[in-house]
Write a structure and sequence with these properties.
Helix content: 25-40%
Largest sheet: 8 strands, mixed
Oligomer: single chain
Radius of gyration: 36 Å
CATH architecture of the largest domain: Sandwich
Number of domains: 3
CATH class of the largest domain: Mainly Beta
Shape: elongated
Strand order of the largest sheet: 1-2-10-7-12-5-4-3
CATH topology of the largest domain: Jelly Rolls
CATH superfamily of the largest domain: Cupin
Number of strands: 12
Length: 357
């Protein structure tokens, strides 16, 4: 140990005169001397304890590692569950947007190429403009089944949609039709992802919204307790939407440009004698409505700048009928108390995510 002290005293230098190589060499020499002196590990620790206590400790390393681990875990979970997360985020965003519709009709932004349009003080701001010349003379839905001769129905639908004309076609949704609600729901409720999903945009007289959010199975069980009811809802959960889409696949007569199906809805009422039309808060530009059983009384109301220029259209959608309508029109239906197929009237609504037409 005396030799070690002699070594350190013989090489006294100012701290600024030392190089890393010299410091490294002296530490190695000191280690060799301690080994020759047979110093134990404990003795060496005690010898350097005053120096070690003066070295500042890195207090941020452990928390930083923890934060990095949590972030990595969240990213990994998000990557694995991306589709499910994406659909839940989309559904929550859609619900929020629907809630603010009564205060601000933002739907004109959805189909705009640019969200920030050129300011024109002569035009009302924040409202989608429609060409009212296309609807001012309409009196009824365009029933394509009345057209005689050999025609391409898909092409006719395409032309009518481009002109914002609501069209009705029959005998094109045979794969949707069911004899009774029980037949349809027996197949739907076999899938847990549908039975236990929570629908959104729910409107009904058989559930109090203050009691929380019911599952589709809960709602179906309540329909068996009431003889008069109406109900419509949207499938926001992606898994439930896919199950329902298997039973209401897009009809082949609908042009290929009108795809894919973004959201789907169910409308169902039984002997409900209501005086008020029920509005569907639809968002996509193109809508397909198919009557699964019974009939639906529909009212199409022109939107925005065409409200005072074009008349509202009313008519019945009968069993097996299919309607294609554009965003020029707000869609409403009137629950019926007519005794058809046991009083049940049921329709499905498909929102088509497209901007090609």
């Amino acid at each position: 140990m005396a030799d070690a002290l002699k070594l350190s005293s013989s090489n006294k230098k100012k701290p600024s005169e030392f190089t890393f190589q010299e410091l490294d060499q002296q530490l190695l020499d000191l280690n060799d001397l301690m080994e020759k002196s047979n110093l134990s590990t404990a003795d060496r620790t005690d010898l350097f304890k005053p120096i070690l206590e003066r070295i500042p400790k890195n207090k941020t390393a452990a928390p930083l590692f923890t934060y990095m681990f949590i972030c990595f875990s969240l990213l990994l979970f998000g990557y694995i569950k991306w589709e499910s997360l994406y659909w839940h985020i989309t559904a929550l965003t859609r619900i929020a947007l629907v809630k603010i519709l009564p205060y601000w009709d933002w739907r004109y932004l959805k189909n705009d190429v640019c969200l920030i349009s050129k300011f024109d003080p002569l035009l009302p701001q924040g409202v989608e403009e429609f060409d009212c010349n296309l609807c001012e003379n309409l009196k009824d839905f365009q029933d394509l089944s009345l057209i005689k001769g050999e025609v391409d129905i898909s092409d006719l639908i395409r032309q009518c949609v481009q002109l914002e004309i609501p069209v009705v076609i029959n005998n094109q949704i045979d794969h949707w039709l069911k004899e009774s609600p029980q037949e349809l729901f027996d197949q739907l409720l076999e899938k847990p992802q549908f039975a236990h999903s929570i629908p959104c945009n729910l409107h009904t007289n058989i559930h109090n919204s203050k009691l929380g959010e019911p599952t589709i199975l809960d709602l179906y069980e309540k329909t068996e307790l009431f003889h008069q009811f109406f109900i419509h809802f949207q499938n926001c959960d992606s898994a439930a939407m896919k199950v329902f889409r298997n039973f209401t696949a897009k009809p082949s007569v609908v042009p290929e440009e009108l795809s894919p199906v973004s959201y789907n809805w169910l409308i169902w009422n039984n002997r409900y004698d209501g005086a008020r039309y029920k509005k569907l808060n639809l968002i996509e530009r193109h809508i397909v409505i198919g009557q699964i059983m019974g009939k639906s009384r529909l009212r199409l109301t022109p939107r925005n700048n065409c409200q005072d220029q074009c008349p509202a259209l009313e008519g019945d959608l009968k069993n097996g009928d299919l309607m294609v309508v554009t965003s020029l029109w707000d869609v409403e239906y009137l629950p019926s108390n007519k005794d058809e197929k046991g009083g049940h009237n049921m329709a499905a609504v498909l929102e088509l995510k497209t901007g090609l037409l």
